[in-house]
Amino acid sequence: MLQDQEVHAAELERTFIAVKPDGVQRGLISEIISRFERKGYKLVGIKVVVPSKEFAGKHYHALKEKPFFNGLSEFLSSGPVVAMVWEGEGVITYGRKLIGATDPQKSEPGTIRGDLAVVVGRNIIHGSDGPETAKDEINLWFKPEELVSFTSNAEKWIYGVN
Ligand code: IDP
Q1: In 3-state terms, what secondary structure has residue 160?
Q2: Where is the active site (predicted)?
């Protein structure tokens, strides 16, 4: 039985989620963690960091041609960020659903940005947008030894497997 759980856990995917400086300053860390945790996803890494502007630029490298790239990198490095790795079936795609659209004004009510943010430049949370990005972002923000692997007792109730 334990073996089955281990196999199952090994198949689960991981995504990188960050509470950006505006979310931290507004006291929304626990609210954001709570939405992922209540859904049934598992927190396997977390730390509070103030990234340098250079590091923020690496994180947002795909956007380096955008006019807002400099301001965005500056903003991400302007204060503490809560960097996290969440694990679970479909967590990359569904995590983005929990987060909502990039522009909070286009985010549905019930989503994190829809409920808690107003403008695109202060949309409080980041989430990886696909499997490759997730892998790259997890590697950028975390060393392997900063992440844990464990089977939660709740998994059999969340996934319905033994
Ligand atoms: P995402 O965060 O929903 O994945 P991306 O297009 O990857 O969206 O953009 C990264 C971040 O850049 C957004 O979360 C937002 O903070 C910022 N951003 C995106 N578009 C604009 C814009 O038009 N003006 C200012 N900031 C923007």
Answers
A1: coil
A2: 126 (pros-phosphohistidine intermediate)
